[in-house]
Amino acid sequence: MLKKSVPPFVAQMREMAELFVAEQPELDRMESDLSRLLAQFYIKTADYSLDRWEEDFGLAADPELTVQQRRARVLAKLNSRPPATVRRLENLVRQTMGEENVWIEEHPEDYSFTIYVQEEKLSDLLGIADQAMHDTRPAHLNYHFVEQLIRDAQLQTYAGGYGSMIRMEDVAVDMSRMDSPVYMAGYGQIIKYFREEVEMA
After folding, report:
1. Nearest to 133 by CA among 94, 168, 176
2. Class assignment of domain 58-149?
3. How far is it, in rounded angstroms, from Cα 130 to Cα 200?
């Protein structure tokens, strides 16, 4: 703030106070414009410069894609370079989808590998990561994606007596620690929580 950049006795002058009122909005706008301009130098924060990024990486413009999907395409192209080691392929998916929990399980006997992506919700970037993987992986190896959805569920538990409710409380269930189905049963009802896996062949 401009007022804080001068000594207190100057800031208290009526003329200076009026200058601050007039100039501060312009300085704020300029700072915002500079911050936005700086963001254009990085793929993960670029918005209006994405056309230039796509052109630089030889990607055809697709107006139907969201800004996030366009960024993912550029990141995929940037990270799709040889040699195609396990570590590089994992990093390709991490950068493209923005997920940290990514690992590859190799199946040498089948000439294939499985890419696991652990996330809280299904991503609309999986198709872009799949295309990038198809273009980058060694041509003789097959692969498929498995998205693991880890849910933190919230439920209410009730304890009741005949004709009246005695107790009600919220219970947080951390689904990330459950590897097998868990059943919670009450009188006349069963609640099932499970780890969801979605495979993309």
Report:
1. 94
2. alpha beta
3. 9
Phi, psi (degrees; rounded to nearest 5) at 192: -115, 130
DSSP H/E element including 116: strand 112-119
Task: List per-residue pLDDT tens for the chain, 201 residues long.
Answer: 677 777 887 777 888 878 888 888 898 899 999 999 999 999 999 999 999 999 999 999 888 999 999 999 999 999 988 888 999 999 999 999 999 999 999 999 999 999 999 988 888 899 999 999 999 999 999 999 998 887 654 445 555 555 554 454 444 444 444 444 433 444 333 334 344 454 554
Portions of the chain given CATH number 3.30.300: 58-149
Contact 129, 68 (CB under 8 A): no
Exposure of 66 by Cβ count < 10 A (0-12 exposed, 13-18 middle, 19+ buried)? Answer: exposed
Q: Would you say 118 and 99 are in contact if contact means Cβ atoms under 8 Å apart?
A: yes
- Biggest CA-to-CA distance, the chain: 82
Q: What is the phi/psi pair of residue 175, to 5°?
A: -75, -15
Give the torsion sign (CA, 155, 97, 125, 115).
negative
Residue 166 phi, psi (nearest 5):
-95, -40
Query: How many Å apart are CA 32 and CA 131, to the nearest integer?
Result: 36
pTM over 0.85? The answer is: no
